[in-house]
Amino acid sequence: MAIELTNIRFHYPAQPNQNILSIPHWSLASEERGFLHGPSGSGKSTLLSLLSGLLLPSGGELQVLGQHLGNMSGRQRDCFRAAHIGYVFQQFNLIPYLSPIENTLLATRFAKRQPSIELNEEIQELLNALHIAKKEWYRPTRELSIGQQQRVAIARALINKPRLLMADEPTSSLDMKNRDAFMDLLMSIVADNNITLLFVSHDLSLSSYFNNVESLSDINQAESPASC
Amino acid sequence: MLAKLAMQSLLDRKGSVMLSLMAMTVSIFVLLGVEQIRQQTKENFSNTVSGVDLIVGARTGSLNLLLYSVFRIGSPTNNIRMETYENIASSEKVKWAIPMSLGDSHKGYRVLGTSKDYFRYFSYGKQHRLAFTQGQAFDQLFDVVLGSNVAQQLGYQLGDKIALAHGIAATSFSMHDDRPFTVVGVLAATGTPVDQTLHVSLQGIEAIHIDWQHGVKTHNNALTQAELEQANLKPKSLNAFMLGLKSKMTTFQFQRMINQYKQEPLLAILPGVALSELWQMMSVLENTLLLVSALVFIAACLGVSAMLLASIRERSREIQLLRVIGAPPYILFLLIELEALLITLLSCVLAIALLALCLFFLQDYLISHFGLHIQLNLLTENSLYLMTALIITSIFVAMIPAFSSYRKARA
Which of A78, A95, A107 is the closest to B318 by Cβ? Predict the structure, then answer.
């Protein structure tokens, strides 16, 4: 299992009576492509924060790639996330004043990889594979189109060869044509590299790309949908 | 890598960073400038006179005596009779005595009437004697020896004829123009008020006043030059004199003797003691200046912190992104600290460059108007200490925004 949740509860420390998430059980098998859908505010982003170790659950057991996140220190979770989890947001996936190369390089540093010629070649190959033209490599990413930025975001998320890639509405700022191109590219890269993919979105039309489609409201038993 | 990230992030916010940088630069400039001037004034100051055991003048405050005799500031309150000087100078305890007669000027520079012993015995700094760059001591009645600044500023050469003015104002209406003096010597720079002084013999001073009464010229050229030179010009009074004693052990005893002199009320001071008294008075002012500039610096630090704090609000997504790619919260703390540090370091460099530039261009002005010899050597031990203190302060103040960024990263 890439992800396994048992009796997970989460509430913010300030509101102990208001559970945002309460999941009796949910899992995602290795190399599966999972799609979780739900309206905005249903706790999708909170779930991803838990799975990436940014937040700790208020109760329950949380296993990601065979590791019990609840038993790790904050520092260990940061290292684990840097090395094994790729993450793509809806937007602001890149430091806007750094170039695609620098953004990708930054991700390797937190995974404690030393700069080397091989690493540079690896980054360039990845950018090529994601159809980022060479002339865009050294420009600040804020000057790139949204479609280009989201593709660089995949490069940044995948440079450390993570076993799990999480994507939080990565297509919602793209138009139809870009969205389909993005999805095709994502799927082929995930398949080529044997990566487990967890994709959350409110857009059900994307579900055709996935073999495991679930609604967050089916697995989440928390009474009231929280505000974020 | 973090430094590069901090640098790029600052470059990305040029506008607000530039303003903070300017505020910081100005404050460090003021702070270093005040410190530099303070240090150098103190050095100049304690170097103005050395090797003189006692300064004697008519009874007045010790600071007043020091000011007019050594610094050529203010005027003597009263005169000393020549007999008194001769009496004391001939004491067997006295090794040498330098008479001083003040009251005339030349284009704002004071004229000192003295004897040749002045050039032999007066010393400054660490027992440096006066040296001539050109010519020699005065020999004739109407010979004058110039301090280095006087010669430099007024462009006088050996052999030039100059007229002295009565009184000490920069523009005087009563000139001793009937009896011009000839430049026979120029002294080497000392960094003391000697540089701003014209030196003539006591007899010379007497000669130009011979047909004057109560500060007014009575008639012109009553006596010819030759007649004057032959006349026995003996001054009747002096303003002050400096004494060197044969044995330092007798200094206090001799001082008491002079202070209790029966024939005339006199005051003898130890230059070192009077100098440090005067310095203490001035240091209050300079410490205030230093304190004010330190406060200006703190204000600039707070300004930088406010700028960074505001930037953190704009950059919450950047913080979130760095967290997601694996940056631990302390890295976010360090990033903000580093940005503050970069601003401070860059400001230090800019401030030093600016100060060096200003001092370079103001050097002549400071020397001619304030007698301040400021060296361009800015990286003294003291200013390095000061800059270390500045950097540490800025690190402490930047903890406010850095901690805010850390907390944001933890959430």
Answer: A95
* Spatial separation of the C-alpha atoms in residues B151 and B106, rounded to whole Å: 12
Q: Would the CB atoms of A107 and B329 count as touching at under 8 Å? A: no
Q: How sure is the predictor about B25, in pLDDT bands with cuts at 50, 70 and 90? A: very high
Sheet with A212-215, edge to edge strand ranges:
A85-88, A164-168, A196-201, A33-37, A212-215
CA–chain centroid gap for A135, Å, is 27
For residue B6, the tally of other CB atoms under 10 A from its CB is 20
Sign of the torsion formed by the C-alpha atoms of B109, B115, B120 and B122: negative
Does B368 have pLDDT greater than 80?
no
A200-214, B230-244, B331-345: segment of lowest average pLDDT: B230-244
Residue type, A100: P
Is A54 an 8 Å CB contact of chain B? yes
Could you tell me which residues are beta bridge partners of residue A139?
Answer: none
User: Tokens for B243?
Assistant: 């004494």
Q: Is residue A154 scored above 70 in pLDDT? A: yes
Which pLDDT value is given to residue A224?
A: 55
**DSSP alpha helices (H): ranges in chain A?**
44-51, 74-84, 100-110, 117-129, 146-158, 176-192, 216-219
Residue B291: burial class (beta carbons within 10 Å; 0-12, 13-18, 19+)? exposed
* The pTM of the whole model exceeds 0.80: no
- Classify the C-alpha dihedral A98-A100-A105-A110 as positive or negative: positive
**Token pair of B119 as six digits:** 């050039």
For chain A, what percent of residues have pLDDT higher than 90?
A: 28
- How far apart (Å, rounded) are the C-alpha atoms in residues B183 and A200? 96
Q: Do A89 and B321 touch (CB under 8 A)?
A: yes
How many Cβ atoms are within 10 Å of B61's Cβ, its own excluded?
12
- Distance linking the first and last C-alpha atoms of chain A: 28
Q: Report the length, in residues, of chain B.
A: 411
Tell me how close the Cα of B331 comes to any Cα of chain A, in angstroms: 10
Measure CB to CB from residue B9 to each of A75, A81, A97 and give the nearest one. Answer: A97
Note the pLDDT tens digit of each residue in B171-192.
666 677 777 889 999 998 887 8
pLDDT at B351 over 90: yes
* Alpha-carbon gap, residue A214 to A209, rounded angstroms: 13
* Set of chain A residues whose Cβ sits within 8 Å of the Cβ of B11: 97
Let me know if B125 is exposed, middle or buried by CB neighbors in 10 A (0-12, 13-18, 19+). Answer: middle
User: Nearest CA of chain B to the CA of A192: how many Å?
Assistant: 22
pLDDT at residue B262 is higher than 80: yes
Q: Are A7 and A62 in contact (CB under 8 A)?
A: no
The span from the CA of A46 to the CA of A30, in Å, is 22
- What would the two tokens of residue B245 be? 């004693």
Tell which residue, B340, B352, B356, B350, has the closest CA to residue B391.
B340
Is B317 in contact with A92 (Cβ distance < 8 A)?
Answer: yes
Say if strands B109-114 and B175-187 run parallel, antiparallel, or are unpaired: unpaired
Which residues, other chains included, contact B21 with Cβ-Cβ below 8 Å and sequence gap of 6+? Answer: B343, B346, B347, B350
